[in-house]
Amino acid sequence: MAERAATLFANLTRQHDALKCGERTIRFDQPHVMGILNITPDSFSDGGKHQNDPEKAAEAGLAMTVAGASILDIGGESTRPGADPVWEGDEIKRVVPVIEKLAHCGAAISIDTRKAAVMEAAIAAGTHLINDVSALLHDKRSLEVAGVSGLPVILMHAPSSGKDPHKGDGYGNIVTDTLDWLEQRVAEVVAAGFERDKIIIDPGLGFGKSLTDNLALMNNIAMFHALGQPLLIGASRKRMIGALSKEAPVDQRLGGSIAFAHHAIQQGAQIVRVHDVPETVQALQIWRGMRDAGVTAPV
């Protein structure tokens, strides 16, 4: 236990190596905005917005890049509570044309999927990262496909790797349970041959977690740096914002999304995954300006 404690403590100040993602280099000495681009009919926030129109979806992705997104996260299957599973062939048809159009847009392209076949198609189309809400557990081939690709992976905590990622038996302590699970999963993925420096972790806000659980995680984001991996936080427009703001509908959760993103960055999160890129980038720029002024001696 003393050995583990020493490792966790040392990880708190670990400097992360930059990731080479196609034409983009992601450095972790500053936080990054990941723009969400859903090519789905039923995602909780923007379902149907870009469905069946790769050109329009690519234009939206390009606009996010121009606004300052370092990464675009492209998904073809909704993982909201109660969403129906999507056949991998349909998922591929949704995402591949968009990835091909954005592969050289200047942002790193992430594929948001749980399926090995979709990963393979996205990699062939030019994607640079793999973002799996099941941490490469849902599909038996995912670990191999991701490993052979050599691409960075985002491992997210969810209570289940089955059809419904929100189904679970509850938690003892949500923070330590999630931290322990991610620590074990990172170790398993590294043991399978992955480079530790190419693994990003995500505590999975909103996935099988109550409002109390989500707030406990948000208030303890800094603890996850003890795992020694870059940290992604995705709280944008989620139900907990409505729960804290008189049930504000999804399209009226900008203020809450900015507040959570700012809080995550304050606690050292390297990536915030958001729907509202220009507003979040502006908030990040203000945060950086204040931080830099705070550490610079007055003339």
Explain how this protein is built:
With 299 residues, the protein is an alpha/beta fold. It has a single domain (2-295), classed as TIM Barrel, CATH 3.20.20.20. Helices cover 41% and strands 14% of the residues. It has ten helices and ten strands. The protein has helices spanning 2-11, 54-67, 88-102, 116-125, 142-149, 174-191, 211-219, 239-244, 254-266, 277-295, and strands at residues 19-21, 24-26, 32-38, 71-75, 108-112, 129-132, 153-156, 199-202, 232-233, 271-274. The strands form two sheets. An eight-stranded parallel sheet has the order 8-7-6-5-4-3-10-9. Strands 1-2 form a two-stranded antiparallel sheet. The longest helix has 19 residues, at 277-295. The chain starts with a helix and ends with a helix. 46% of the residues are buried.
Output the CATH topology.
Answer: TIM Barrel
Radius of gyration: 18 Å
CATH superfamily: Dihydropteroate synthase-like
Runs in which pLDDT lies below 50 for 5 or more consecutive residues are none
Major β-sheet strand ordering: 8-7-6-5-4-3-10-9
Q: Report the principal-axis shape.
A: globular
> Describe the biggest sheet?
8 strands, parallel
Oligomer: single chain
**What is the distance, rounded to the nearest whole angstrom, between the alpha carbons of the first and last residues?**
48 Å
Q: Name the helicity range.
A: 40-55%
> What would you call the structural class?
alpha/beta
The H/E string reads HEEEHEHEHEHEHEHEHHEH
